[in-house]
Amino acid sequence: MTTITFRGTGDSQGVPRSYCDCGVCSEARSTGSNRRLRPSLQISDPETGTTWIDCGPDWGSQMEIAGLRALDRMLITHAHYDHIGGLPEWYDACRWTDQIGQAYCPPEVIPEISSRFPWIASRIRLIPMEQPLVLGQWYIRCFRVHHGRNGYSYAFEFVHASNSFRWIYCPDAIDMTEQQQEPLYGADLVILGASFVKEPFPLETRSIYDVEEAVGLFELWKPGRMVLTHLSHDIDVNKRYMMPEGIQFAKAGMTIEIRD
Ligand SMILES: [Zn+2]
Ligand SMILES: [Zn+2]
Questions:
Q1: Gyration radius (Cα) of the chain, Å
Q2: How many whole angstroms from 188 Cα to the centroid of ligand 2?
């Protein structure tokens, strides 16, 4: 059995935002159901150990919450701060425990990471995902997606060898081409980034889908289930807004189990 755990469900600033007193940020500070760390996912599998997707600046706190002392590998979607800002911290952890971290990245992301953190390669192996990665029963590949004003990002597709369960993690995307959307059709599970309920700004100034667009894509792609993550303080996870059955917001610590 593979267990997916949502460790970071927030947007690039997390929730609460340091400067903000809105209702969602205030709730995040008090009862805390909207408290969200920067986007990341933990994948646990008895056969292959712990795989982590994206190493944002909250990585250290997320490891504490997960009760983990080490990772077996990391997958990186793209080189934005909210997805790689924790790499220097992971580097230090690897150095102090005398391990070599394994980070699988889309090939074109590696030079960006190396130029940002030139010292990192001595403790973290940045492995280009030129070929799909086979991890136990899972066949994993990355594919490029538009990230609007912010350039590009990558999504990961996971296909199970024996039961052919297929799921996709696509936290940072907008305005995807038909070709980029192809793998999303009919997936058993899609985890998609949606930062606002309804973003009023022109498309060319935006970088992530909103909830209204995600609902449209849910109806188009018809996945078995869709979970929205990368949620900003605009979204109250206790509300349903216009979401039909089959879509939900990711909550911190929420798990999804996939049986072999
Ligand atoms: Zn992001
Ligand atoms: Zn991004």
A1: 17
A2: 24
